[in-house]
Amino acid sequence: MKPVYITKAAVFFPNEPVANEDMESYLGMINGKPSLARRIVLGKNGIKNRYYALDKAGNVTHTNVQIAANAIRNLWDEEVGLNDIDLIACGTSSPEQLLPSHGAMVRGELGGERNIEAASFSGACCTSIQAMRYAYMSILSGSANNAVCCGSERMSAWMTASYFEKETELFSQIEKRPMLAFEKEFLRWMLSDGGAALLLQNQPRDNALSLHIDWIEITSYAHKMETCMYAGSEKREDGSIDGWTMFPETEWLTKSLFSIKQDTRLLGENIIPLGLSFLMELTQKRKLKAADIDWFLPHLSSVFFKEQIMSELRKNDFFIPEEKWFINLSTIGNIGSASPFAMVEELLLSGKLKKGEKLLLMIPESARFSYSYCMLTVC
């Protein structure tokens, strides 16, 4: 079993940062009216800037595939390039086609001369960690000497006003049903575009800090929990899901099937307790102690959850003081699967890390409640 190290991290964000007051200039106004939900959501989530692969005319400037490929290209230097790589594993919440897979499309976009294995993981925020785990296990087993894992999103494609207008035309009394508007719009004001990639190798670099991957743990509560975040489908009263193929084409827009939606009640009641329950299991399995953690990198969709997480950690005698937390949500937004790697990239380049320090990553996924934790050691 060979050791595995993160030897480099890179990001790619399309265009210039978009401030809160400019969001509707890019995403558009539904039926020409400012959003009722925008101010409420932005008042809670703490995000100040995000990135969109759009211009103000609504034109797409970068595809998800291009975003991922650009993040991966930013890993290359005089020591490692595309032709040195054995495996490319990609995760995303927002693939732009059903087939071929997102990973295959990214591999095609990168070009090059060699055949390279391409793996693809589709889901939500945990997909990049699933890609990382596949890359990690490939190196661990000796089937690869190095690998690239990437998370990327182009969520703006699902958040433009055009995806909502046909449905709201049917509700002349939408102002009297604010919860409907809120749950349909909630994620419009939460999500961002961008990509982040990690280079994994079987030895650390001599001229820069590396991160040894101590362990990666992933679990799912889908057997207990109904769907919370969904797209390309409609949720029934009983919590079950009907996919887009179950509807006639005329309802794809009138029901806004291809907008991304969130059951905010389920989210608020379960996302933190389930994540902390899994963490407590890991304290036993991995002999994990809060005092051993030097940096805590939680993927947050909103800073609204920060105090709740701290409170739950206290209750479980696993308190991590705020000075050990590292979050960049406010400056880059919530970029789904790319967020964990983007935190690693910024911290790795910050000059704050010291050899021997321990980093704990926490990645919750609300789609049907999956969770990832990862422990890294600076070397």
Write a brief caption for the model.
With 379 residues, this protein is α+β, with helices and mostly antiparallel strands. The protein is 29% helix and 21% strand.
SSE map:
Layout: E1 5-12, E2 18-19, H1 23-27, H2 38-45, E3 49-50, H3 64-73, E4 87-92, H4 102-110, E5 117-122, H5 127-140, E6 146-153, H6 162-168, H7 178-185, E7 194-201, E8 211-220, E9 229-230, E10 233-235, E11 241-243, H8 251-254, E12 261-262, H9 264-285, E13 295-298, H10 306-315, H11 329-332, H12 339-348, E14 358-365, E15 370-378
Parallel strand pairs: 4-5, 4-6, 13-14
Antiparallel strand pairs: 1-7, 1-8, 2-3, 6-7, 8-15, 9-12, 10-11, 14-15
Helix pairs in contact: 3-4
How would you characterize the overall build of this protein?
By secondary structure, the protein is of the alpha+beta class. It has 12 helices and 15 strands. The chain has helices at about 25, 40-45, 65-75, 100-110, 125-140, 160-170, 180-185, 250-255, 265-285, 305-315, 330, 340-350; strands at about 5-10, 20, 50, 85-90, 115-120, 145-155, 195-200, 210-220, 230, 235, 240-245, 260, 295-300, 360-365, 370-379. The strands form 4 sheets. The chain has a 9-stranded mixed sheet, sandwiched between helices. Strand 10 and strand 11 (about 240-245) form a beta hairpin. Helix 3 (about 65-75) packs across helix 4. The longest helix has 22 residues, at about 265-285. The chain is globular, with a radius of gyration of 20 Å. The model is unreliable at about 170-180 (pLDDT under 50).
